[in-house]
Amino acid sequence: MPVGAGSAWLNSREAKRYTLQLVGARDRASIEKFIEDHSISPPFMIFERELDGRPWYALIAGDYPDRAAAIAAGERLPVALKNAGIWPRTFASVQASR
After folding, report:
1. 61 pairs with which residues across the strands?
2. Which residues, other chains included, contact 84 with Cβ-Cβ below 8 Å and sequence gap of 6+?
3. 5: closest CA among 94, 65, 78?
4. Of 97, 88, 6, 86, nearest to 46 (Cα)?
5. Whole-angstrom distance, CA of residue 16 vs CA of residue 31
6. How far apart are CA 21 and CA 50, in angstroms?
7. Rg over CA atoms, the chain
8. Model confidence at 82, in pLDDT bands (50, 70, 90)?
9. pLDDT tens for each residue of 11-67
10. Contact between 60 and 44 (Cβ < 8 Å)
11. First vs last C-alpha separation in the chain
């Protein structure tokens, strides 16, 4: 299993800063495979929330000072990652969704 940051890392992030959500899925194992297949480097975290009454897992990676920096980081990702449908999120939105 890929080792990423834990809840303490997520909770210690400033709410106004940004991260990139790379992928989401119903199956945690598919997120773990995505991490391995794309050699995602820390800091990253798989977080779980409920969606339509069922677990939903999402992968976030990075810590950026603002939306522009997160978007710029996303533009530097390999094409395969960009095509996964990444989007910038505030840490506040991630923290609130758990």
Report:
1. 20, 44
2. 22, 23, 34
3. 94
4. 6
5. 26
6. 16
7. 13
8. confident
9. 899 999 999 999 999 999 999 999 999 999 888 999 998 889 999 999 999 999 999
10. yes
11. 21
